Amino acid sequence: MLLETAGLDKKFNGVYALKQMDFSMDSGEIHGLVGENGAGKSTFIKILGGVYQADGGSIRWEGNPLTGALAPEDSRRLGINIIFQDNVLIPAFSGVENICLGLPYPSRHGLIRWKEMERAAYAKAEELGIRIDLKKTAAEMGPSQKKCVEIIRAMMNDCRLLILDEPTASLSDKETGLLFDIIRRLKEKGTSVLYVSHRLEEILGLTDYVTVLRNGEKIATARTEEIGKRELVRLMSGDEAESAGDARIEVASNTAESAGDGMTDRPEEETGRTRTTVEAMVAAGQQVSGTGNATDTENTAPQQAALEARDIFSRDGIVKGASLTAPAGKITGIFGLCGSGRTEFLECIYGYRKIRSGEVLVNGTRLPALSPPESIKNGMAFICEDRRGKALITQFSVLDNMMLCAIDKYSRNGRFQTKTALKTAEEMINSLKIRCIGTGQQTAELSGGNQQKVVFARAMLTEPSVWLCDEPTQAVDVTTRQEIHRLLRREAEAGKTVIYVSSDLAELLEVADSIAVMASGKIVRTFENRNLKQAEVLACCYEAEREETA
Amino acid sequence: MRRFRTITKIAAAVAMTGVLLAGCSTETPETTAAATTAAATEAATTAAEAEAAETEAAETEAAGPLAGKSISVMTPYMASVTTNQMVGYIEEGLKDLGAEVFVIDTANDFAALASRIEDVVSSGTDGIVLVSADPNQVANQLQEAFDANIPVFGCDSGFIDGMQLNATSDNRQMGELIVKYLFDDLMGGKGTVIALTHRPHPGVVLRCEAFDEIIKDYPDIELITEQHVPAEQPINDAQDIVANLLTANPDKDSITAIFAAWDEPAIGATNALQEAGRDEVIVTGVDGNEQAVELIKEGTNLKATVKQNFEGMSEIVCSEIEKYFGGNASEPGEQYAPAQLITQENAE
Amino acid sequence: MKGHNLKQYGTVAALLAIVAVFGILRPQAFLSLRNFVNITRQMAPLAIVALGATFVMTVNEFDLSIGSIVSLGGIIAALLAIRGVPVAVCFLAAVLICIGVGCVNGFLIAKFRILSFITTLGMGTVLDGVIYGLTGGATIFNGIPRSFTIPGILRIAGIPFITLTAAILYLAFHVFMSHTPVGRKLYAIGGNREAAEIAGIRLFRFRVLAFALSGAMAGLAGALVASRVGSANTTAGQGYFLQSYAAVFIGCTVSKSGVPSVIGTLIGTAILAVMANGLTILQMPSFMQDIITGGIIILAIVAQKIGAGR
After folding, report:
1. Rounded Cα gap, residues B181 and A192, in angstroms
2. A396 in contact with chain C, both atoms CB, cutoff 8 A
3. What does the alpha-carbon distance between residue B149 and residue B142 come to, in Å, rounded to a whole number?
4. Distance (Å, rounded) from C-alpha C87 to C-alpha B36?
5. Are residue B197 and residue B302 in the same domain, yes or no?
6. Nearest CA to CA, how far is B308 from chain C (Å)?
7. Which residues of A touch C184 (CB under 8 A)?
8. Residues in chain B with pLDDT values less than 50
9. Is the pTM of this model over 0.80?
10. Which of C182, B69, C66, B275 has the alpha carbon at shortest distance from A105?
11. Is the residue at B89 inside a domain?
12. Which of A214, A492, B347, C105 could be disulfide-bonded to B297 (CB atoms 3.0-4.6 Å)?
């Protein structure tokens, strides 16, 4: 065995983040690690990387027990390298220098020999079959190039075990394919890979073994070929989201009743909680809105808050004449390949990205200018792709993040109504099942899924009539994903407009009523989501791209 | 830029006060008095009074006329040699008279000076001596002192209504003395002159005004430029400024003289002239600080300065404080200690 | 990485433009070798202080005590000189003590993870107190021997010793920051602390190093200034604090990625020094000098932002 751990424990503030972790993997093995957010995946890999010290248990490396605390450099000396979800590159450094970071710099008379460094970096890139310009600075690179740089860096010092944490979160399908080729090549060379991902298809397609974590404990390890997606989901979530595979059926069902019916195999208590979740979410939203919202509940007919975007051209030339009509009461999906401008289009509508021409109409009224404050005034809520970077102020508390857009609403005579706000925030935490110590906890300490819930809670407090969601379930666990889908469905049923941008076509087919296909900065076609096949949509995408290049 | 500096300093001062308050119990009486805030006013005042009464009763005869009085000597310019001397004289003189003396320096920071004045007023000091600081810049804080019947004495400061006294050299007269000597005796009534000034200082500005007035009467004397010299490191800055001005006026005799409104820039100017080998340029200063007098003696470009009678001013302040508490205060106003012109002949 | 430091020439162009303007307005006075030497000598102390600030900014921290350290360096050197200590020893002692101060700064910040802003603000105040305690608030000049002023006024082949010192330091530290492992590690820490930590760079050691170097430069500059004027003023350093950061910030605009660099800081310092020199030569009133210099600093940074945006 290359790596064996026995009874690893790690506690934070007295709570087990990882408990009695027994794990083993062999050389040349690709091992998947799955679990919901907060299941202990990151804790485990950070212990292996020497970032955290285990409170108890033992680690054996090639049969030899490791004694004493494992520091990051010890871990790397053994040949363990971690590539984290967030890029850890020095922006101002070139690819070459980033690759060589952490190695002793090649030097003569104390001066760095840049040529030698360059040769080494390019040689390794060549060996791995990666062809990118390593002289560019990290700041100038795209996400997949950065990922490649990190992989080359990891392979620079005789890497025995490469740990990848959600490596595909920011990559397109094609780039993901390239990454998999690289990983398989590593395996051939005898390097082991521990692959952490939410994307079960990737786990099933790539790995030899898979280990499932839940609430800090290992639930199972199995040969990947002997386990199905359904089984994985069941193991990951316990009973709660067993029906994930049937998500489409469940989410599309029109009432809370039938949503409950879909979960009959669940203990009574659990079912009850799920139902209240959905109802409480809506209730919380309404409670905040007070009297003004009375009409919403009465009049749930469509056509209430339709959004229309006409001929949007962005100033940077990424969006080139995109138009979209999103009716109230529906979830309108936008699908596009990487680089099609789907995120940018959404940002244009919200006014975050500057436009050169085009207009946006809410309920048939043209917005005089596009800017985030104007959009919020007109009832838009924007859930953006880059959760840590743009949505959350991670060092703020859960409460402060939730109140960010609603500070004015909770102020009377210039005083912020702390008590009311606290109460509302607590209700939100309960109704969205946000796992946190309390309203005062820093959001940086929450897991990805729970952070996303905070983002949604904030949006709900502004009582939006138009939801603009960009990859809202990116890197969140299965249960949260379900909850987000349900939440948006309820919002649509309450007469709101929902625009749902995703690079995951399967997800869109689950959740959207219609799917607009975007290619080369334009909406090329809109499909009604009835008996729609993935192949049809994809064909349309590739067709449009081909036309564009021709 | 200077504004930012002030803000930073205020922040530093606030931080410092915090530290002091936290460490109050272990501090010496001097700092404690400085850091006592308005919050502690009542208690402090009562305590101080009680204590004062006690000591007075016990030691009046033994400890001199100012026994039991606490006097705050405050200045923003302690780094200046002359201010430092004056503070020393006053501290000594008042202690000899039996008073308790607190010296407070705010390192060029008027905002901090204002705060410290508020502090000593609320801690119930018996008197304030303001050294080398323009009272107009802290007029509001001084008004609090006036309202609390705390007498304010100036030393080389300036005079505003409500104060008891400002003992000073007549800066105006000093300015006239040196400018006339420069123009008549050293320049012979014609030529070009550069002025190095610092008008925010209350004494220095009067000298500058004397210069402004008198130069009008000399049509053959031309002012090349006036440059402001910052107070943090006047020698170094004046040296740079003059070096640059020499570059701008490279011909011999293109500059006849440099008038410096106090001695430190005069020293800097002299350094620059010596470095450039411009022996013909005349420099004068005001104040008579030792380094300047040394340069005059050596026969450098620095030809003359006016020695302020700092000791005399300090004596005036001390004797007026004694009179005030003895019940026979003089009429409020300015009192002058006579100044003396220093040239190579009488330099010592 | 080689050569990347000078990818953006905007700031250099600005410096040349300023030189050109002064050159056209006052060709004889401004564009002379003598004035060039003059400028380099005048900028030398600021350049040395700003070099120290560059190290600290490289690791993404601030040293607000830098002005007080300059004052302290001058005071220590002067006090020792009065006691008859040889000049070289005076300088060495001043630099060593200031390195000590820097180490304390760095230790507190790196060990307890306190914001450098607050730590050094406190340290600056502490130092002001120490200086006051050492001097009673007075400028030190009585009894300073002639020999002490030699480093300040000495010229070697017509070039002031202060200028030479600054030039050597800049050359050495440019190589140090750009071409030695230690320098690159400082950049790595400033660029992405997490990444640096994961890459096995010892944060503690290098952050302390940055502050120690900052202290060393400030102390040396203080001693040099004291030597030049033949006296040590207790507030001499105050003027250098904001100026040095202005120089580093202008310098950041030199590199494409907006990180501090030794060459950038040199250019930043040069802009400030040329402005002061040129405007005085034009015999511009002091208030106008402040307005124009401040305006140019803001312009430089705005221009870079606009340039980087597109």
Report:
1. 92
2. no
3. 10
4. 44
5. yes
6. 18
7. 93, 97, 105, 112
8. 1-2, 16, 19-45, 55-61
9. no
10. C182
11. yes
12. B347
